Protein 1
Amino acid sequence: MKSIVRTSRAKLVRAAALGVLVAGAAVLFGAAPRVATTADPYTEAVATINQCDLPGLRLAIEDLSATFGDRYPRGMIFLAELQKLETREAALRKACEVREASAPTAVAEFSAAVTRFRSESLLANPLLDFERLLFVRRESKQPIDYNLLQQAPHEIGMPCNHWCNASLPRTVYNNEIAVLSPVKPGGAVATLHRPSDGGYVGELDLRSEGDRLLFAQSNATNWKVFELNADGTGLRQVSQMPDDVDAFDPCYLPDGRIIFGSTANYQAVPCWSGMPHRVANLYQMDANGGNVRQLCFDQDHDLYPTVRNDGQIMYSRWDYTGIRHEYVRILMTMNPDGTGQRALYGSNSWWPNALYFARPIPG
């Protein structure tokens, strides 16, 4: 079914498909790689060549060819074209080394050609065969000092390790849910929903039928779960929690119920001795927000629930009691009713010491 697909908490697919989504603006909107500014044009030219990352592009095309075979029919053609770009790159590096006068201009033309080729070859991924792309775009209203992660508010809505949404500022965002169609450079972007009060909007979960989506939204009071039709109509508040309770991280269950994260447990991150950093556990509710039931009873955060192909729920847990408690996030799984909780990956490990935003691979 060709319909809207989500990029917020996007499905974990093979490296090439994920690379397209990570490349985001460069691939879909045709942006050229960012070039470092120096006083020497030849140094800038070499930096531009490096940012083209032809080795990474080769790995992606080879992975697409090996993974999808006939479903990626132009794979060999793309590799032949890439080989020509690689030969051209080697010549340009030599020209920069001997400081040929025409080298900076030639490198700029080369960079534009790579950008076009990257878009064509990666967007040929058969997993991207859909008509509309659903996404969130957000920008900061003021500069963020990332050297002060414990003190400075995160205006782009990215909580640090020991935070959940409840620790974020509520009404400082310039963001919206939007749709790109068609999914290619030059596609039109249309706003689907934008909060009117500077509230956060995000954590999208699209129903398998593609007709409705859940998302989290904040206002001056708290965080709530909302639902919206895929055409932007029918906005309704789903969660019906008290004003001092937050609800976010929504996820549809196959039977129509919803799993979500909430601070209804009224507990805080242990080392903060209470406020301001409250702990989120996972809860379940009916489609109308009723019959709320707690599923997880942890002293630490349970976040980002998603339905696995076998019907179980996968989620992330901050394991405060782990070897490196300040960093470790474990991939957990459980039954939809909260029973059978166990670690999928990451328990008692030093590396990787954190795992985020997981989606099962289809099939």
Protein 2
Amino acid sequence: MNSNLFRSTLLVQASLCFTLVAAQTVAPVTLKGYVFVDKNGNGTRDKDEGGLKGVMISDQNEIVESNADGYYEFISTYNNGVISISQPNGFVTNGSFWKPIPPNEKTFSKDFALLPAPKTTTFTFIHASDPHLSEQSLPGLEKLKSIVDSIRPAFVLMTGDLVKDALRVSENEATAFYILYVRTISRFSVPVWNVPGNHEIFGIERHKSLVSEKHPLYGKQMYRQYLGPDYYSFTYGGIHFVGLNSVDYHDLWYYGHIDSTQIKWLKKESTLISKQTPIITFNHIPFYSGGMSMGEYSDEEPGSSVISINGKKHYRHVVTNASEVIDIFKDHTFPIALAGHYHFEQKFMFESIKHKTEFHQTGAVVGPASGGGFQMPSGVVLYKVSDGKVVDRKFIVLK
């Protein structure tokens, strides 16, 4: 994607943030528009620009595919406030891949412009995580930007804990962190695909944030306000990437979990993806983690290792229903699941009859980490893909 276009897209997204409303069952809204190949790159569908068939569009609940003319239309009744396109193979979006849905609209039209992607079967991408951005930690993200400018990967996957804190602070403080993050990544020369971490979940530690559960940005909605859908997908270079929100919350505390609406969405999407297309997931709290065993157990908040939900205790720092998620892809090619959260780079897999998935985590952009007698530098992982397969991975030290 053109770097100037990419930067302007992010800034437009930030300026439109006020239009979103809290996710809830709402009056039906008809969503419609065209997916088209933007021949002249102006972002607008002109008379000689044809539609593209079979592209997925979603409101984070329903998923439809564009028809032979590139047209889509469906009725949304569970409105998270966003509509998004799943970037198809062989193309990149010209402009934002998502759009806020204005409240109280009966009909909302959104066209999605696509540009041909570079014709190559080999590319690289960076997996980064945990910048915990504030003015004090900004140098870490700036260092990552300089590496991106030098290496020129196709894109960056950023797996959560984007901002210093939205859990336990006021709206003004949380939004300042979000605005700083959006402004900073708008200067990156390649797309940055984000998913939320626990630090993006606004206000849930109410005894500290003093934020009401009825606040329109409470919980996951602040993330959608600034960065769009908190789960989505895109395809690049023959690989289907699925970004998930693996952070849920119960009362005051977050924990690793893929919620039921997301599970239903994921099941729908899995039926629309060829079983031969490799799938790579990326999310914040990992499905499984070998490194977590090095940490000390704590049963005191806010750092408790466990959470009790309906009388059952769960470990907070891995996805409690990971097996349910992974089983959705049991008939697909699912080589790698990426995650952050722990601030340690690691790679492992279980020898399994059904699944051959590797579980990877990366270091933290914010700084070095230590635990269990190990020292981990700040860093990111560079992946190389060739002919639809990951053929190399390299840890790059930031500091």
Protein 3
Amino acid sequence: MINDFDFNDLFILDMANNHQGSLQHGLRIIQELAPVIHRNGVRAGIKFQFRQLDTFIHPSHRTGSDNKHIQRFLSTRLSKDDFRIMAEEVKKNGLITIATPFDEESVDMLVELGIEVLKIASASAIDWPLIEKAADSGKPVICSTAGTTLEQIADLVSFFEHRRVNFALMHCISIYPTPDEKLKMNQIELLRNRYPHIVIGFSTHERPDNLVSIQIAVSKGARIFERHVGIPTDEFKLNDYSSTPEQIDTWLKAYRQAQRICGELKRGPALEEEIESLNALKRGVYARRPLKEGAEIERADVYFAMPFYQGQLHPGQWKPGIIAQRLFERDEPLMIEGLMVPQEPDKQVIFDSIHQAKAMLNEARIALPTDFRVEFSHHYGIPNFNRVGAIFIECINRSYCKKLIIQLPGQFHPSHYHKRKEETFQVLYGVLEMEVEGRRKTLYPGDIQVVQQGVWHEFWSETGVIFEEVSTTHFNDDSFYEDKEINKLSPSKRKTVVNHWGRYQI
């Protein structure tokens, strides 16, 4: 992509015709908005609207038109030089210049004035002569989608992608002002699900006192936000859907609040305050009777009760086979430092891996057939499965074979080759790292790697990965490992087969 403009967390403040045809009033709007933007620490641009009115409006409608917009456009006309001065003022104030051209000549004007971002209005979203001109401009493009069908949006996405345009989409409702019941905020989520690789925004026309909509937009995943702006005076009245600098300040603060409330998409470790709060409500494990050193502790030997002490065994850690390594008196908390807790049994390692794999499949939106065979490869034993191994889901194995291969985050599959099988990998989710005959490969969703017979290959993933293997027929005795110790193992020692993982039929 030639133009790598970043659309994320961009605010568009649309001046539209609220400059009222006055250069000085337009400059005042820019100058009063700039400190509000910088004070809130956001990245924002001022947007103009360009129309070549002498050709944009039909000659018979230049006077006395019954179209309510035409007279407003004519009465607020500014010259190219006026827009040039305002664009320079925008840049002088450290903001981004954005413009919506409504005709092809205005695209040329946008380029001539050095405007940085081109915005397609919803009314022009299926105006293909204008869209083609916009694509040829070399500018990053943001396209609003009010009133369009999913088929029309799909056409736009395909067109921009084929033309290698750096673009984003905006959910928008073209009702001025937009009442709550018609905002359709779930459309943001719909667009994000259909186009996860495209930045989705929210172009707003609700009343300025509606602060809930931007907070919902943030929670739905919108990353561009647009509002109409202006300043009312004794001479100029502001419409019901445009915001003053003071209202923009409140709007931006609502955005920041929503960011804080939503937090990160990744699930990190629990907060220290959260742990303290939960520990205050948690039960600990206590000795029901005196426990001798070396005794294996049974369920009847303990009870669970509040309070829980730091370092104490809690019910979630309780399992059979725990050994007391010192004397515990009756009603004494069982502290982990005085216990020998056995490793997780092999079956539990497999069960935990099944749960993680199901979650990854759900996140990747990958559905499995009702009949499939699952194989867990654990080349150095089940206790080391989370470090070395992979999950193979066999869907078809005839003269051709199809599998899904899942690696949990941090898993590695050792170097090996096949004498009879040729296979092709295609990544569906996550990032796959491979080494093929000594050459390092990094594969992303959609990437393909062919592995021919006799070719050494190994793979691993830091993120966790799901990829499809399409191959010739799979044979159980056709994997030959560089580590000869693996080759010596019987299949049952390095593989666990689950016939129905919903019922743990191991």
Protein 4
Amino acid sequence: MSPEPGEHLLRFAGDRLEVALEHPAPGEKGWRAFLRTDLTRAAAARREVIALAGLREAGRAFAGASWRDIPLGERPGGWRLDLPLTEVGHFRAKAYAVDPAGRQHWPEGRDLGVSVHPDHLRTANTIYCAFPRLFGNGRERERTGPGLQADAVAALEQKGYTVIPPGGTLRDLTRCLPHVFETLGCRILHLLPLGPTPTVFARMGRYGSPYAQLDFTAIDPALAEFDRRATPEDQFLELAAGVHLRGGLLLLDIVVNHTGWGSRLMAEHPEWFRREADGAIHSPGAWGVTWADLAELDPRFPELWETLAQGLLTWCRRGVDGFRCDAGYMVPVSVWQFIIAKVREEFPDTVFLLEGLGGAWEATAALLAEGGMQWAYSELFQNFGPREVSGYLDHALAMGAALGPLVHYSETHDNTRLAAG
């Protein structure tokens, strides 16, 4: 069989897939060949994922309703199929032959895997990552600290006060779009999470970590200008429209593994959170660090999956084209399959970028394939010397060509190496 069983291919909507199968008994008449696959059945596959949510732990498995047999055409020495790829998603396929007696003959090896990405993601995927708070009046300063007010701020904080200086807003960032898209030539604007965060208790940093979200779909009022004619959501819509008018895509950081301590979900569904043996809410972490301002969600609840999926759909309806999935490797593949299936029922070209730093490559590979994601974090700049960078780049190029591009962020919020240098 060509492509070989067990191989994984990356293709784009509009491409064609050619599958060939050699004749097991050359010259013998009466044989036929088929491709067993879920290609061309993306909608049926999504419906099956959604219908079986939460039932696999009870011993239920996919029924394979999305699979079908497509006949291969005869050619000298075997059979061939030229199949157009029109749907986004992850698919599997394997060709087999049927002899004159009706017996099936399968090539050895696992199924062929095929990830089909949206056509508009073929190239020019340069990402500009923006933290809207940094786009205020201080964006042109060499330092972003409190400056001359440092002593006053320190005195207040020693007395237990919380001091949060004014920061940039969504409209400040909107005013900078010509620079991002026209001057720098970027095509994708990636926003850090926009929801409210803890500012008094369980606060990390001066503003609170943007990854300690208190409401999955809310927009922090501090990121909006006070305008009685335009709500914070209206001002986000202005930003989204500005991106799209320039032919760009808008990505939003989302957090589905955890919330900030004291979140709306914690108040409404405390049973959806992981607990320690003593009943304390569990905080996630990585690299030996515990993120104490975070509360980890428990993925065993399908009702939680539905809530998360509806949250992403809310953002898509506001103009978001894709999501950077923070700590996505900590969330089971089955949960992502459900969330992505729900989103793609309405927005089939949505992009999912996995943040897998700290996780095993096997987890990243599974989420780029069966999980249905398109892109993943590269760890290129987690390497220091030329030899390490060279070796990792070979890996990134090979894996990116088979499973999905690995995005090279120059630095992350978990690593201040470049800023320190």
